[in-house]
């Protein structure tokens, strides 16, 4: 029996990067998968490829900044597969990398909408279906950027801090429904990584050298199994936890200060 046999999982932002890796690994572990993705071309391609390889998957066009759209994605999972057992809140819409004093209210609002509000809406939409199922698992995505106060990510760091509060609160309250809520802080070679590597010679090598394990993560092979573990019965006694899945990067951390920022500015 594979790890996620007879389970239904919904992964937001599953059209590429880490979300795609998680969706593909879920399918290999026999889960029925909802690829909840805004980009129709990418999302449908992932779902179609999973089906072509013998898995169960549907694509549902999902704008995570819309409460109605997220609720519809959850309902699509139930309509198509009869239940929802695992919710993975991965998607977010990035804003420009600028200093905190240059971040606009609109940038912060966009980040909050696609992280904190998105997870809040998805979790509340999933709750009645998981209760009916007798339990379930929610996996929220956190970030090491928050822990080091990553430069140029003030809005993102703020939102991801809130994700931990949401995760712990839901874990405390929803345990009575046998619903486990955990977070992971992953780093892997997703779309942003490949973009930076293409634009900055040596970036991939430097990134690997920062990690005690000496390599960068693969979305499917390195991140997918941890998310699947948290969604499976193997983690039935784990809730309210945050797991770093980053090759040990959180141990040394990293210096994110841009080289062109002066030490003192008056």
From TrEMBL:
Species lineage: Bacteria, Pseudomonadati, Pseudomonadota, Gammaproteobacteria, Pseudomonadales
InterPro entries: NAD(P)-bd_dom_sf (IPR036291), Sc_DH/Rdtase_CS (IPR020904), SDR_fam (IPR002347)
Domain of life (superkingdom): Bacteria
Family indicated by similarity: Belongs to the short-chain dehydrogenases/reductases (SDR) family.
Protein name as it appears in the record: NAD(P)-dependent dehydrogenase, short-chain alcohol dehydrogenase family
Example of a GO MF term: oxidoreductase activity, acting on the CH-OH group of donors, NAD or NADP as acceptor
